[in-house]
Amino acid sequence: MAPSDKLLRECLKDLQKNDQAEEVSGQSKFSHGLGLPNDEIEETNVILRNIGDVKDISTRLPNAIAMVNVYGTTLFIASYADVSDQELEDKLSEKIKDAIMGLENDCVSHIVVLVASSNSYPLFFYYNMETREEVVSQRNIDLAHLPKLGLHRLKENYDLEKIKSPHNCCHLYKATGKHDKTEKRFFYRTVVRILDSFAADEVTACLKKVLKRACSEIAIALYKSSGVDRSHVFLFIDRTSTNKKIKMSPADWRNVVYMAYRDCKEALWSSRVNQVEIDFILFGKRRSFEQATKILITDNTGFTPFIKFLRAEVSNRSSTSNWVHVDAGMDGFEYGQEIMVEGCCNPNWNPFVDHYPVRSEIDKRRLKAHLSKTTYVYDYPLLFQRALVVAWTSVPEVKKPKPFIPQKLCSFRELIFDESSHELIMKDTPGTLSTIGMVAWRVLLIVPEYPEGREVIVIANDISHHIGSFSMQEHNLYYAASKLSRMEGLPRLYIAANSGARIGLSADLKKIFKVSWKDKNNPLDGFDGLYLDDSDLIGLEDIVKTTRYGNHNHIVGIIGKERDLGFENLVGSGLIAGETSRAYNDVVTYTLVTGRTVGIGAYVARLSRRICQVENADIILTGAPALNSLLGREVYTSNGQLGGTQIMTRNGITHSSVSNDFEGVCQLIRWLSHTRKHNKAGLNQQPFIDPADRLVDFVPSPNKEVDPRFMLTGHYDETTLEYLTGFFDKDSFEEIKPDWGKTVIVGRARLTGISVGVIAVETRSVVVEIPADPASPDSQVKTFQQAGQVWYPDSAYKTAEAILDFNKESLPLVIFANWRGFSGGQKDMFDMVLKFGSYIVDELCSYLQPVIVYIPPYGELRGGAWAVVDKMINPRCMHIYADSRSRGGVLEPEGTVQVKMRKDLVPFIHRLDKVMADLVCRHKAGYDVEKEINARVELLLPTYRNIAIAFADLHDTPIRMKAVGAIQGIVDWEESRIFFSRRLLRLCVERDLYDEGCTITSVADIEHAYLLLCRYFKETRKSDFIWDDIPDIKAIEILKKERSKIVSFMLNDQLYKLGLRFGVLVFSSFKFASIF
């Protein structure tokens, strides 16, 4: 220990009362950090002297030092000062140094000067008597706190610069690497005094206060400094003993520390703090034992805090302390996963006493990625694991297995492309850092939908290698990994952070080529070409083509020794572009755009179709500086003007935007939750807690001013605060492309645990904004309104694209049809609304999953809008129903009256109005009542127009729709969930059975499988059995009970046809089925 606090207090108490020097001497023990059992204890002779006013230090210090006669003594000088200002420290430092320079006593090794001030914190100055210099890094550190801060662990690898702090108990250092001057870090260290009788909430509040103070000071220092890539916060918790009962058990400390960290996590990450280290002594409840303990919280992504709870123990074989790894984990997860690269950490590093390690190669690459506003590629496994924790913690209770969260949530096995064998090799153990700018993994994800695990292929750019550019090595790995996903039918995820195709130049020729000037004395006249001397050309004939001209070898073409210098990378770009297009057709493809994606990176992102874009990421073909150079003036200030989320979310390229990389990975996991395990996997209905037989509480409003999303999701009534349920399972609907084609709503949801694609209609008017182009001086922001219930070019294309995406994902489709038609104005016709509307028919015509079209309450489906979603487009897959309050027809009733009943209104008045009948009789009798007749007609015309509209409207009711076969049934909205949950399950089980018994590649194959199913029932049931008339619940029971027989029947049919083709006799279908 240093001189006791009690002794110091008594000494300071008498400072201003007595100017006479007092001497207190004794032996003091110093131990670094927590005072571990086997730590070396440094015993030092300390003499404490009071000298009164610090102004007299020059005269009193020589007397004090002359009395020291024990070698290695530390002289502790206590004094006071009457003044305090901002420059007091520097003035006192110089004054004390001047006083020390003339002292001579080899027995004194160090001098510590304490200056007490009436209106500021005490000041401490440390001087090394060997060098006569102040140890600035220790200034204002209480001597009792000095060994606890562990500064010796910093000084081995770093040069320290102490930064002034408004709090003398807090110490901030800017550390510069001794071997790598480019490495700069901040170290924040402080001692926190906590009574051992504090409760958990009191300790948490205290730690939060200290962490927030650390963030503030580091943030200010970051503003004044440059090149600092990370920060470290160290807290030593000094537990002061009391006579009261200890309220916190040893098990409480980890939770308390993490709760404080969690509440400050965002502030810590914004201050670039990637590690928080907390040391303390762990007491038993009755102070029966003391245990040196350390908690390390490391987070290199901002979202994956990895917690280590360590304790020191005595080693009988060594004179130094060892440590035991008690446990580790992530937020909400018991077992943590560290970066999966060999050599990422030193297993022998002792976190209690060893020096802080310098920046590793991983740290350097991670810094490059962070500067590009993205996550380092090898940190993505951590994000996936954290995202899976979120996925598991957010599932309904009924779906949670026991144990709640599996111990191992994901497994990443890296894929390497062997250039010699041109094969993809999978590593089962962690590999070294990638030597190319691309990394691929085969990943096993333990997700709630598949607790046994599902596999995906993940491909990611490494932006720390040649800024993520594509050469043939990157292209080959991308191509091989994507091809693997297609061969095995696995979903493919691409994390895009790149700079497009790589550009290179011959390094050999760049050093030796010469210029053939027109005039050697005047370079401004230009040059005739580049050439090589004969001596330079020797050995380079294979990498450069020249022609002899005079005495020079003029260069006519450069091949280069290096690979991937130019357009061969464009050949590779074509390779992966074609592969990505094929992958979209064969498997489910997703892309997360982070940092930036340029050129071919932007194309393959778009070819993957389903894009999640981070807000600070850009999707561009050419960077802003290059475009400015092309335009000859500074037009664009950033890449965000070209391809930021404000552009890509409004033009339909980006499906979803997120605030950070972690949210992006979470979005990918959510999208994956709606897909099947692989291409050949069957229906996977998830457990659900939202009852299938409940009524739908929310009813759409006739005035159409309510958000139509409420009928999908439900919402809380603003007046009663009661939750009104929607059509789908609660909280299951997730919208995509919300800022583009706003008159149509698309997304994914679940109906009794079955994932479906959703298309609904915006009934309210929306505002569309077209941004101004800075490159066009006369360009201005344009805003215009689009009416609800109308298909415009953008919303029609959005509908077609959504249908295509859902079909590729093997999702059933639910369309809430509520369109009055297509917009047919000149601008919209020019913008190809007709073409995009026809795309809807194209996609529905080839849809291979069940499609339910439902006209909701007060909805209407008219004209061309009906034509593009009619059942006859795909009669085997599409099913259309309507609510009893819905309407449909060629025109709206007003339009029908105008076209068909305009001349019938007056005859109606003559036929139905008694007063008019009397007037007509009088007119026929010869009375002049023509004015009265005309006045009566004019009076009643509005009323009879409404009567005509009502008459026309009665032709548009679901009653007539069903009578003429336009719809298959009338389903009231309140009971729609009950009906469609059963109908959808029946259709999905039936469709799943077709996949198992037949090869389904087209709608014709589905029709054939349906006929086989009907034939099976014809051969196994009575003649009056009609499959389509069987109720849904009974049909589901039949399909599940006789599934194996039906599949065998269908397979035998395939064998029978194959036998006929090759002349081989095969059993008849019925006999073959009866065998099973």
From TrEMBL:
Gene Ontology BP terms: fatty acid biosynthetic process
Q: Where is the CoA carboxyltransferase C-terminal domain?
A: 691-995
Q: Which Gene3D superfamilies match?
A: 2-enoyl-CoA Hydratase, Chain A, domain 1, Biotin dependent carboxylase carboxyltransferase
Q: Name one GO cellular component term.
A: mitochondrion
Q: Which Pfam families match?
A: ACC_central, Carboxyl_trans
A GO molecular-function annotation: ATP binding
Where do the CoA carboxyltransferase N-terminal domain residues begin and end?
Answer: 355-687
Mind telling me what this protein is named? CoA carboxyltransferase N-terminal domain-containing protein
